[in-house]
């Protein structure tokens, strides 16, 4: 088993994590823990969002770049770590507001 597989398995065990996707620089999912339809949907949409986000950051400061992207909705939280050759997308259940306030 590769180091990548070990890391994915370890991340998958974190509370609330529902799936992980690794997407190459061509937009093709190379590793996933989600079903095919969900993987394709998240990969395509998130890659577009990362491209737009990078563009905004570079428009504001040409020497800067996107390091991390976090999106929170009522149901899910999507965290994206873009690198040169791939994107790591982590989908997890959103924390309830009451749980977040208690911690």
Please describe the structure with a list of short key phrases separated by commas or semicolons.
single chain, 103 residues, alpha+beta, five-stranded antiparallel sheet, 40% helix, globular
Strand neighbour order, sheet with most strands:
2-1-5-4-3
Total number of strands? 5
Morphology call? globular
Helix content: 25-40%
What class do helices, strands and sheet pairing give?
alpha+beta
Count the DSSP helices.
Answer: 3
Instruction: Indicate the radius of gyration in whole angstroms.
Output: 15 Å
Mean pLDDT value: 89
Rounded to the nearest angstrom, the distance between the terminal CA atoms is 36 Å
Largest sheet: 5 strands, antiparallel
User: How much beta, percentage-wise?
Assistant: 25-35%
Catalogue the unreliable spans.
none
> Secondary-structure element sequence?
HEEHEEEH
Tell me what you see in this structure.
The protein is an alpha+beta fold. The longest helix has 25 residues. It has three helices and five strands, in the order αββαβββα. A five-stranded antiparallel beta sheet has the order 2-1-5-4-3, with helices on both faces. A hairpin with a 3-residue loop joins β3 and β4.
Write the layout of secondary structure elements.
Layout: H1 3-12, E1 17-24, E2 29-32, H2 36-60, E3 69-72, E4 76-82, E5 86-93, H3 97-102
Antiparallel strand pairs: 1-2, 1-5, 3-4, 4-5
